[in-house]
Amino acid sequence: MRRPVIGFVCDVTAVSGHPAHLVVEKYISAVAAGANAQAILLPGRLSDIDGNPLPQSVDYAEILELVDGIFLPGSPSNVAPALYGRPPEDQVLPADPNRDALSIGLIRAAFEAGVPMLGVCRGCQEMNVAFGGTLHPKLHEVSTGELDHRYQKDLPIPEQYAPVHQVALEPGGVFSGWVGGDTSWRVNSLHEQGVDRLAPGLVVEARAPDGVVEAFRHPGAKTFTTAIQWHPEWRFGEDNLSSAIFREFGAAARARMEIRRAR
């Protein structure tokens, strides 16, 4: 059976001193198994050997003709603050302007074209910015209470990704419906930045105890357009909500695939 094709937005980072376009495997594996989909990698903005951006290296229309869905993964890098109206000095390093140059415009183009989208962590933040929202560059400086959303660097990776706090699922919302009406769920937390002002048109599906938006969707979209601040890809098969997120993303991508095949 033919599988839908999911385009993964790449980070652009140095490998052995050379720019490389890459995606961490855990995201690809979760989409391959959880959404039953085939992955292709979408390079960020390209540069010449001297580091100068190449003109027209990103063509959104061409990309969207190739894929049945877009996945925006997490990343160590942070969205450029200029993209949401803050001064350059608010940039929290590392930055990735070549990913920014692809992702923000691609989100808008995919929305207009009716291509399913799923964003995780940085991808969640990119989606909010692309739709007109803003971010807290340093969430821990404004978050109330004792909750610190950042990951603990000194812990082994499995412990970093372990569930650490509850989120409140919107009663009657889509996420709550996926887990039999439950309105509370335990999730991991590995982010320094987060949603400040939610973009117009988006609706919240989950919030942390301190009020931070942990998941949202776009009910005005033609198809699945959803973002999660935590990391559902980690051991997704052991968590009912995570499994549902990838299952529903895959279903939307398959529907898109059938439309493309019927042309």
UniProtKB/TrEMBL annotation:
InterPro entries membership: Class_I_gatase-like, Peptidase_C26, PuuD-like
SUPFAM superfamilies registered for this protein in UniProt: Class I glutamine amidotransferase-like
Pathway(s) served: Amine and polyamine degradation; putrescine degradation; 4-aminobutanoate from putrescine: step 4/4
Keywords: Hydrolase
Enzyme class at the top of the EC tree: hydrolase
Source organism superkingdom: Bacteria
A GO term from the CC aspect: cytosol
EC number: 3.5.1.94
Catalytic activity: 4-(gamma-L-glutamylamino)butanoate + H2O = 4-aminobutanoate + L-glutamate
Molecular-function GO terms, alphabetical: gamma-glutamyl-gamma-aminobutyrate hydrolase activity
CDD domains, per the entry: GATase1_2
Keyword Membrane: no
UniProt keyword Hydrolase, yes or no: yes
PROSITE patterns assigned: GATASE_TYPE_1 (PS51273)
Single GO BP term: polyamine catabolic process
Family: Belongs to the peptidase C26 family.
Biological function: Involved in the breakdown of putrescine via hydrolysis of the gamma-glutamyl linkage of gamma-glutamyl-gamma-aminobutyrate.
Record protein name field: gamma-glutamyl-gamma-aminobutyrate hydrolase
Organism: Acidisoma cellulosilyticum
